[in-house]
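Handout, section 4.2: multi-component inputs.
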Amino acid sequence: MSDFAAAPALPEIVPERRKHGTFVRFMLRHPTIFAGLVLIGLMLMIAMLAPYLGTTDPTALAPARRLRPPSAAYWFGTDMLGRDVYSRVLYGTRVSLVVGFAVALLAAVIGLGIGLVAGFVRWSDALIMRIMDGLMSIPSILLAIALMALTRGSVRNVVIAITISEIPRVARLIRGVVLSLREQPYIEAAIACGTRTPRLILRHILPNTLAPLSVQATYICASAMITEAILSFIGAGTPPTVPSWGNIMAEGRALWQIKPSIVFFPAIFLLLTVLGVNLLGDGLRDALDPRRALRL
Amino acid sequence: MNKPPLLEVNRLVKHFLIRGGLLGGIAGRVRAVDDLGFALERGETLSLVGESGSGKSTVGRTILGLIRPDGGEIWLDGARIDQLSRARMRALRQRMQIVFQDPFSSLNPRLSVRDCLAEPLANFGLARGKAERERRIFDLLDQVMLPRAAADRLPHEFSGGQRQRIAIARALAPRPDLIICDEAVSALDVSVKAQIINLLADLQKELGLALLFISHDLAIVEHLTHRIAVMYLGQIVEIGPRDAVFSRPQHPYTEALLSAVPMPDPETKRRRIVLAGDIPSPRNPPQGCRFHTRCPYVFDRCRVEAPALRGPGTHRAACHLDALPGA
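Output:
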């Protein structure tokens, strides 16, 4: 042991703590998150303030004024029943956001639960994952159409139908994360220092699944909005009495060659919203990358 | 009457089954640990050395109950522990701790040093109230010679050596009798290696810890250990006091390992024994003596009969050479 008596006693340098980035600095470093949040924020404002943004009743019929082109009085023109497209598109924002956020939240929470069980309870893994594979083998649009065919068209049922078709993706992702985390030495170290399973999941597994989960949730949000629009477009989604972007486009479809504005405006709104959510998702994916040890 | 040793391992067996095929049948078995035994006294250091794939780490993890043995017995302080329920085993882990090889993956990147050290304290109910917990955490940081300001930091803010100190502090937290160091210094720089070795030696003297030091590096082991056990393909081929093993190796494998230890003086003349080939697969270990495929002294008996671990006193080896006249 004497050989090491002369081992260099290096000074125990603990690096100066890096200052926490302020919100502004974080946004400057991640412009995609910023752009995504701005777009989503804008849509949220529109959805909440729809009645105060110069809109009229989006369902009020006015046959005398149908198919007006965009003008000062009707910003986005009127549809074949004389309804104000501007008001309809703004109110339609509510449907899209509600469906997008509700599906993302529900699918994330339920998928997280299923994924944790499958990843942790070994005997249940094969069973759960075969069911999930079965669900995944059906294209999500078809599955949603089939589920909608079983029920009455309403926003709630649309949310449920899309959630069911999105759950397997989350469950599969979380199961994979759990399986790879289980092999981490710090999990074994936690078991070795006496940590019980519930605490192990809460403290060591769950926090490490949140980054991939939130990224996945944003993509699900975007995909749910598109699926909702498709379902409404083909008449299997939101009932025609509720203005949604899919409904507006479906009703404008027959006339799109002579009155493209009816389809154009809801399509632009859908595009911007989905773009915003996807930008946020991409930004989160980069920012939460564990390889860049970045403190949020 | 003699007190039982702190840790005793008898005829330990661990085979990993390889599943394959359509129905997940057993496609083969890896004999990671096969009929292995040793004893460890209080305050003693035993080093388990061998090349990668020899089953060293499996031994450590089996003792802690992180994996279940397939056969044999493990005794801690005169009580058998290899068949305990998970809950009983959890309670026993207060007395046995482990330090892993890679200090970058053995600490949860999201837990501060304080949270990391508080976890074993909370698990075993070792600190009542916030003040006592805080005091214990500072004591632990002092013991591993880290500044107390380190408590608020996250693991990624530390160097490899500092992280390994955190891991050692975590292992010390439940005040164990035994710490298993699974290649605990192998991933560190040479100078940092020396610091950690010195720290472990000091802690052992101070706290009367027993250390099971698992390593592939005989040079690093020499400065720390009281006894050495050399492993090859899941079995101990030689075990004995440090000086005896280093000066009079009885097994050709130990001899070869010792000849590979780097010497500070390049002028020193010595016989370098280079073993041919790789360690055979533990899926299909050789018949007879497991070392016979690479042994420079191999003769007929080695190919058919497995030698038992034997020898005078505490220095024992598993080799047929000792029975030859003039050996």
